[in-house]
Amino acid sequence: MTERYETKLIEDCIKTLIEKFKECPRYFFSESDIKSYLYHLLISKESLKQEYSTKSGYLIGVVHTEYPVIKGFFDLVALDTQSVNQLSITKQKILCGIEIGLDQKYEHFMKDYSNFTPDAGNEVSLGYVLHFIKGYNADWAKVVEAVEEAARTNDCSLIKKVETDEVKALVVRIDLSK
Length: 178
Known about the structure:
Blueprint: H1 5-23, H2 31-43, H3 46-49, E1 52-53, E2 59-60, E3 63-69, E4 72-79, E5 94-102, H4 106-114, E6 124-134, H5 140-152, E7 157-163, E8 167-175
Helix pairs in contact: 1-2
């Protein structure tokens, strides 16, 4: 996939979120707080806050939360701005989907990760899984090991990993456009 301007903006916002979590983990009480903060960062970017006209003439934004896909909902999505005007409101192409977990176990991380495998059937170009831990989590090493193994086999890229005594966080990018 060729790097797009929107993709860079999205990754910059994710990195800003990670830094905020690292500096002030108690700023985020829940996963919803993290999602809301990232949504705010995303729509503060000019190309992501614009309204776009669908094929039917409806005006829509490109950043959404709890966006429906084949198996449930993505926590956050950014629609493909290059195809919005060619598609109906219910058939939009997802540029990137984002799943977020806070203080979750290994199984939750793997469920989020599996939403971006070809078997999931979710039509998305890029997937991001963001996993945040405050304090101790017995499954952290298992999550890191799974990510590092997937990265070795080119199934994903580890974009960012933070490990301190107080917090742990990682961002995984899955490119489905290959």
